[in-house]
Structure formats: C-alpha cells, structure tokens
Amino acid sequence: MIYDSNEIQKILPHRYPFLLVDAVLELEPRKRIVAVKNVSINEPFFPGHFPGQPVMPGVLIVEAIAQAGGLLLLREVADRETKLVFFAGIEEARFRRPVLPGDQLRLEVEVVYWRNTICKMSGKALVGEQLAAEAVVMCKLVEREIKRA
Predict the structure, then answer these.
(1) What does CATH list as the number for 5-143?
(2) pLDDT tens figures, 14-27
(3) I need a labelling partner for 69 at 20 to 30 A (CA). Which of 80, 101, 105, 113 fits?
(4) Partners of 32 in the beta sheet?
(5) What is the pLDDT of residues 66-97, one digit of tens each?
(6) Domain limits of the chain?
(7) Bond into 95 cis (ω within 30)
C-alpha cells in the first residue's frame, strides 16, 4: 500500500461521510492511480438506497473515481491546502453491476490529458474482476475560497 486513509486525508480535502477512497495501491505520478474503497453496510446512504436491498448509488461510484483522480492531481500541487478539485464534466458513464455492502471497489484511473488547471481522466471501478462502472471525468483545480456573485 502506498497511502492509507491518514495519508489520503493529508492530500484530499474530503472527510467522512464523503471521503470515498480508503487506500492507494499503485501510483504513477501524472499518469495513473489504483485505489480502493471498502463498501460497508454502515455507509450513510444504504438505509435509503434502497431499504431492504442496499445498493451503492452510481453517482457515488463516479465520485469515488473522481476522488482517486483528484488524489493523483492534488499530490502534484505544492499549495494544495488552498485548492479544491471541482467536476468540470462527466462523459461516457456506464454502470455494469450493482455495488453491494461487503464489496471492495478497485478504482483504476488514467490521465487522458492534463493542462495547467484542467485534467481529463478515464476511470473504472471494479469488484474483483467484474467491471462495476466506468466514466471519463474532467476536473478543474480552483482556489478554495469561492467568491459569490
């Protein structure tokens, strides 16, 4: 393991219940990352999605892919404590199998392009050898202080 949850929290600004990356297994700077999310029955979304048949929401699977990519991006930023990574787009999102309590999501994310503050990444979420979801995510690095119009 390259990063555990304590190390991840030094890089990503997300916190429980919205931190969706538990460990980093592989990392090639500016190229790719492999991370995991351990899906527990204690996740706050399961009581409502769906009662009696808990399924991880697809949008949160895409968020986990994006957080893994954000981790890859933010670790390269010297002043990351003053930055956030915002979604700029989601393309080609496909959901192949449900993600259930007890599953471990393997998040494999590769950089498609990276220019200044914009990054486009292709990601997959797998359970074992089965593809659960995939998406192309685009994100933008922004200042943490958001100015209101």
Answers:
(1) 3.10.129.10
(2) 999 999 999 999 99
(3) 101
(4) 28, 110
(5) 999 999 999 998 898 899 999 999 999 999 99
(6) 5-143
(7) no
